[in-house]
Specification:
The chain is built from twelve helices and 14 strands. It is of the alpha/beta class. It has two domains: 157 residues, Rossmann fold (3-Layer(aba) Sandwich); 175 residues, Dihydrodipicolinate Reductase, domain 2. A six-stranded parallel sheet has the order 3-2-1-4-5-6, with helices on both faces. Strands 10-7-11-14-13-12 form a six-stranded mixed sheet. Strands 8-9 form a two-stranded antiparallel sheet. Helix 1 packs across helix 12 and helix 7 packs parallel to helix 9.
Length: 360
């Protein structure tokens, strides 16, 4: 563990908490030092308290850690939150107020005006919002940074390179995996042989979070992208991988080849490429007419890349395509970890400098 930073996982026994622990095993900068869960799990070893729903077993380095209650004092400066929204609302802010760096996957605080809604390749500069957050809240070293709804992730990753063409209208239809509903997810009698044309709360999140993430940091606040978004969210019988079908209006009307070339050359915010969890490249365009596909493409870039395909003309808005991201890796725990990595190299984590990063 030499030169590594110990971290705490809030909601460690849940499905997203487990994904955090899985992804942090053998991480070059961070290791899991504390696990936190509800009072019914507190006091037990992580192995005893957890119904492990991912492949394999809990990492040996974490299995014998004793689960702490949610109100425990934590030693770790860096905290990853996989809490449900009700528990996250006050606890995340309490921890940030006493100096912890909180990277959250919960939805509760992500739309606060002073909280960066971070997708590092797209809007790494939004971390500048932390200066306002700390100043206005009186936090000396603490911070709260969120990642977005898992369905907004592939939409924003695909649209970010296209901002240069002017984005005026966006139409999105999602096909969301059942793991996005948490464990045990959707009842088998509801999802087998079925598509459910409603995912509670996600349409509103998709229509707002997308514009915040694609916005610009201007004068101490985020100026949202000036565009119209309409979203329809559905649940489909796929375990992992959220697919979105996007139609978009681009003001300067680039050719289809120009759009594809823009995706293929996109690297985003410069420091991100050197981060250990960053996919190379962040976007993968598929020329096959029937790709991307959830089962074949969700693990691209170790589950952190976004796969795009089927770009063609749309008779209504001009362009349409499909995009896919792994919802519990890129859309949840993996993005929070990437956010923390960017914060580390940008100097936002007190007294921690990654040992294998060379600054330009």
């Amino acid at each position: 563990m030499q030169n590594k930073l110990g971290v705490a996982i809030l909601g460690a026994t849940g499905a997203v908490g487990q994904r955090f622990i899985q992804l942090l095993e053998n991480h070059p900068w961070f290791y899991v030092a504390e696990v936190v869960a509800s009072s019914r799990s507190a006091g037990q070893t992580y192995r005893s308290a957890t119904n492990w729903v991912l492949d394999g077993n809990p990492p040996a380095s974490v299995s014998e850690l004793v689960v702490k209650p949610l109100d425990a004092n934590l030693d770790s400066v860096l905290v990853f939150s996989a809490l449900p929204k009700e528990a996250a609302e006050t606890r995340e802010i309490e921890l940030a107020s006493v100096g912890h760096i909180v990277c959250t996957n919960a939805s509760t605080n992500r739309m606060l005006e002073d909280v960066p809604l971070l997708l590092p390749e797209v809007n790494g500069s939004h971390l500048n919002l932390l200066q306002r957050q700390r100043s206005e809240r009186g936090w000396k070293t603490g911070a709260l940074v969120a990642n977005s709804n898992c369905t907004a992730m592939p939409v924003v990753m695909a649209l970010a390179p296209l901002k240069q063409f002017g984005i005026s209208k966006i139409q999105v239809v999602s096909q969301q995996a059942i793991s996005g509903a948490g464990y045990p997810g959707v009842a088998s009698l509801d999802i087998l042989d079925n598509i459910i044309p409603y995912v509670s709360g996600d349409e509103q999140k998709l229509e707002t979070e997308t514009l915040k993430m694609l916005g610009e940091f201007v004068g101490g606040h985020i100026q949202w992208l000036d565009s119209l978004v309409s979203a329809t969210c559905t649940r489909v019988p796929v375990i992992d991988g959220h697919m979105v079908t996007v139609s978009v209006s681009l003001d300067s009307k680039p050719s289809l080849d120009e759009v594809i070339a823009t995706w293929e050359s996109y690297r985003g915010y410069e420091p991100v490429a050197m981060l250990p969890s960053a996919p190379q490249p962040p976007l993968e365009y598929h020329t096959q007419i029937d790709r991307p596909q959830s089962r074949r493409d969700r693990n691209a870039g170790n589950g952190m890349a976004t796969s795009i395909g089927r770009l063609r003309e749309c008779p209504i808005l001009g362009y349409k395509f499909a995009a896919l991201s792994h919802n519990t890796i890129r859309g949840a725990a993996g993005c929070s970890i990437l956010n923390a990595e960017l914060m580390a190299v940008e100097g936002y984590i007190p007294e921690f400098t990654p040992h294998d990063v060379v600054h330009a």
